[in-house]
Amino acid sequence: MADRIDKKPSLKKRMAIMLAAVFTLIGVIVGYNMLQAVMLKKMLEGGGGGIPPATVSTMKAQMQDWQDALSAVGSLRAVRGVDVSTEIAGLVRRVNVTSGADVAPGIMLVELNSDAERAQVETLKVAVELATITLNRDREQLSVQAVSQATIDNDEADLRSKKAQVAQMQATLEKKTILAPFAGRLGISTIAPGQYLNAGDKIVSLQAIDPIYVDFFLPQQQISRITRKETVIVTTDAWPGREFKGKLSAVNSTIDPATRNIQVEATIPNPDRALLPGMYAKVNVQVGSVQRFITLPQAAVTYNPYGAAVYLAQPAESAQAGGTAKSNAAPSLVASQTFVTLGPTRGDQVAIVKGIKEGDTVVTSGQMKLLRPGTPLIVNNSVVPRNDPNPKPQEQ
Fold first, then answer.
1. CB atoms < 10 A from the CB of 122, how many?
2. Choosing a second label site near 265 at 20 to 30 A (CA), which of 41, 83, 146, 223?
3. Could you tell me whether strands 377-379 and 54-60 are parallel, antiparallel, or unpaired per DSSP bridges?
4. 277: DSSP letter
5. CA distance readout (Å), 176 to 16, 85, 254, 341, 373
């Protein structure tokens, strides 16, 4: 047992071995880093020719009209839309409904059986004639004091009552004919002659859809940016690639306390009835006046703790201006970094307020390959970043 214990390395010896291994690893890491630093220094001292060229895409900076806009999702609603129904019950005698047709106001849609009401009206008209004759006769007798004034008063009251009954029955008779309350487009109806309708039963949908409303919501902090008559552009997947322009017509008088959003209404001309109530729509509200900015793809901007920057592709002679040329074989284009002040964004684009000028050649992709300003460039614009102010999903 004593022999086995003696053969084990002592604690001090094991600690020494571990420390030696740690120091060896630290030495390897430090040496590697020093070697990398020396190599990088030699590359930098060698000028642009010592750095391998980076392949990038570029574009010319250009001024574009910029219309600030607010985006939202909305729902289309008819200016006037109802489900036409009957106010009283009855048996359908005649149907004048063509599903999907456009109708003018006052057009007869459905007529219910009204024979009993017509007969009742004639009966009441006869009663009115008799009451009129009675009143006239009693007035003649009053002139010779044959009847009292009370008799005349009763006759007049009876005549008014009979006329009121005629008017009431005439109104009931008119309700047997259901008319279009306004001009619009009919929906699909399944009403047929001989069918019995109860009061309130739906006959057909009627929608006035030219123009048409679009309802949408905006955050409350946007209220100060919107006013009536602002231009509104509506798109829907039902009509790909087509835009419908209208005007903002109303802003709700209250804000939803649950979402802090405010409802906004826009009116869209719809002469060909392409838009229908209930459709989902994307809404773009153009706010403010048209401005002009230099615009770039958002992918062209790089961000760091010092701010936003872009890389310019400049001739090697321009990039080395003020310095000493390193080699006669300098590359034709090299990278030059410049800080920029950004403006608003729209879609894939961002506005540049300050930092570059129109006509500058801007690197739009491949910035991660640029080790430092002065890196030689190879321009390949076969694939460029998206630069669409109103991008759509790729599956569309």
1. 12
2. 83
3. parallel
4. T
5. 110, 11, 42, 72, 86
